[in-house]
Design a protein that fits this description.
- It is built from eight helices and eight strands, in the order E-H-E-H-E-H-E-H-E-E-H-E-H-E-H-H.
- By secondary structure, it is of the alpha/beta class.
- The chain has one domain: TIM Barrel.
- An eight-stranded parallel sheet has the order 1-8-7-6-5-4-3-2.
- It is globular and about 45 Å long.
- It binds D-xylitol-5-phosphate and zinc ion.
- This is Ribulose-phosphate 3-epimerase.
């Protein structure tokens, strides 16, 4: 896999023609499909479940699908998403009674596992599980909606998590989600992120390839 991964959030895609829209964004150069699952309980919004993930696989989408679970409780959805074709499953630790068990459940079902930390969630959640993480996802907005503005103090948190990853000696992806766009992606990468979720910045205009190319150009500077 390349050093930097672009992961469009399909929350901002056209749900009436989701298969074609996902196909188009992958053809435009995206690496990963970011799949936001919201339950109107852990977050105040309601989106899509395993059936839609399976539908994308049935449609012929072969790219990695990065399932971001904003749900509480978490565990019962993990086997369902694994069966539906998820590649990566991340969850918010405060939404699980037993974080270590939930991580193991994801691994046991053959997916890569990660924790998601909200802007105000303590990094201490990482302390005892670094050896089981494939991904750490830092939220740079409060979860629940696309189209919000990047919260600047997240940059310092990114730097801190990057230092923890380096100290661990492990190859853990550092993913950032919320308000990422062409104008701030370089600064976010410099703070340590290597996987970039972007929803509205990509889907809310017609030229997906143009935006993704501009993002990659920023990352190459
Ligand atoms: C927010 C979701 C994000 C969201 C990002 O709760 O987790 O993935 O879709 O959207 P933008 O890039 O528009 O901030
Ligand atoms: Zn997300």
């Amino acid at each position: 896999m390349s050093k930097f991964l672009i992961a469009p959030s399909i929350l901002s895609a056209d749900f009436a023609r989701l298969g074609q829209d996902v196909e188009a964004v992958l053809a435009a150069g995206a690496d990963v499909v970011h799949f936001d699952v919201m339950d109107n309980h852990y977050v105040p919004n309601l989106t899509i479940g395993p059936m839609v993930c399976q539908a994308l696989r049935n449609y012929g989408i072969t790219a990695p699908i990065d399932v971001h679970l904003m749900v509480k409780p978490v565990d019962s959805l993990i086997p369902m998403f694994a069966d539906a074709g998820a590649s990566i499953i991340t969850f918010h630790p405060e939404a699980s009674e037993h974080v270590d068990r939930t991580l193991q459940l994801i691994k046991d079902h053959g997916c890569q596992a990660g924790l998601v930390l909200n802007p105000a969630t303590s990094l201490s959640y990482l302390e005892h599980v670094m050896d089981r993480l494939d991904v750490i996802l830092l939220m740079s907005v409060n979860p629940g909606f696309g189209g919000q503005s990047f919260i600047p103090h997240t940059l310092e948190k990114l730097r801190q998590v990057k230092a923890l990853i380096n100290a661990s000696g492990r190859n853990i992806r550092l993913e950032v989600d919320g308000g990422v766009n062409v104008d701030n992606i370089k600064e976010i990468a410099e703070a340590g992120a290597d996987m970039f979720v972007a929803g509205s910045a990509i889907f809310n205009q017609p030229d997906y390839k143009g935006v993704i190319d501009q993002m990659r150009a920023q990352l190459a500077l």
